[in-house]
Write a structure and sequence with these properties.
Largest sheet: 7 strands, antiparallel
Number of domains: 3
Order of helices and strands: EEHEHHHHHHEEHEEHHEEHHHHEEEEE
CATH class of the largest domain: Mainly Beta
Biased composition (Gly residues): 407-423
Protein name: DNA topoisomerase
Radius of gyration: 29 Å
GO cellular component, one term: nucleus
Structural class: alpha+beta
Catalytic activity: ATP-independent breakage of single-stranded DNA, followed by passage and rejoining
Pfam families: Topoisom_bac
CATH superfamily of the largest domain: Topoisomerase I, domain 3
Distance between the termini: 54 Å
Oligomer: single chain
Shape: globular
Number of strands: 14
Amino acid sequence: RGGGGGGGAGAVNPDAGAAAEFAWARERLFDEGLARTLFGFVQTARIATVMNEGGRETKKWPPVPLNTIEMQKRVNRACRISPAEVMKVAEELYNAGFISYPRTETDAFPKDFDFAGIIGPLTNHHVFGFHARALSAPSNRFRFPGNGGHDDNAHPPIYPTKLATERDYDAWRRDGKMNQIKIYDFVARHFLATCSLPAIAHKTTVEIEIGGEAFKATGVMIKEMNYLDVYGKGPVGGPRFDVSYDGWANNTLPTYAVGQRFEPTELSLAPGATQPPQLLSETDLLQKMENHQIGTDATQAQHIEKVVGERGYAVKVGDNRLRPTELGEALCAGYYRMGLEDMWLPTKRAVMEADVNRVALGQLDVPTGKRNTTTPMLDAFRDLERKQRMLVDAVAEFVFPNENHRGGGPGADGGGGGVGVGTGPGVDENLGAVRACAACGAPVELRKSPRGRGPGGGASFS
């Protein structure tokens, strides 16, 4: 099966009684006629021959100890709680003594950390205590946690500092503090997972041929769940968790031998189409900020809240995704048309953050660091003043696209190509409410500046 003219063969091994789905080795074709011709050959042949079978043991390793950015990303992904709310609740749990200090970049425990002192009380937890007991004597399946490579030399990774009893859970439920339960459970289960052995499986790939076309199926046979017992959906036959933070797709395959022949139970050719990339989630955005070294673990969530909540450049939609508003798109388009892409791309901010870090490390003097940041920003501001018509035009184009706007041709004032606010028919000097504020819902008004039109002849915003 596959999009864009893909195909596949569903197969059942009568001896094993287990189903396996094989994917077309070509993946997809964009020539429908050719795809249907090849599919005809497969339909005529019907019989599949196993050409190759190979497997190997593979391991899925536990997560490294928890720092702030990983906590925000993982909880946001699994529980749909915003990064800002994650930090708010985590600080409440810290102040109540349930978890360690939640603002840390460190993801490695020191060699002398008292693991037994933390794991011991968790053996009495009413849900995941079974795993804490497995890490303790006599089972002793403890493994020293991995090293994530980050240390802020101030705070250890985040871990549970005391057992939350059933009475604590009842109090949280009674007070409507369900996020306390979700985040405490995550911190405790993550800590236990880091102290656990890796999951082990046998990964198998089977290649078959039908009518001259190759197909392939890949699957795993899980041998030992280990850390996934507490970090996934729970052990088979044991406690099951409402929230899973990790997993290993249990796409098991029957046993095949090279040269074996069988008849697939289903053959299919499915039309499809290319798809645009998904909107970024808060987790995606946090990761991109981390990749560009923008902000710190304590401020990255605040940046997102400012962009979404305060300034209305984006709104949350669907499955916790971020969609740019008309205003957000207009600012990006306007900066791009003015040649000021650095005002919305992450590059300039990343350079500034890097210089701040170099100053802190003594690798760059403060005056040079200031100059590296202020000089290009002042240059950009002067360009913006000179070309303000282009920004006004872009905002007009995106915020109220159905009006008749004047196209701004190239000119000395920087009013370059685009669609702009003008004084022609259908456009008033004071435009009034043009959209609802993404943050509070109040009307956003576009008004003429009290000082009159600037050098670019555009309106100002308030």
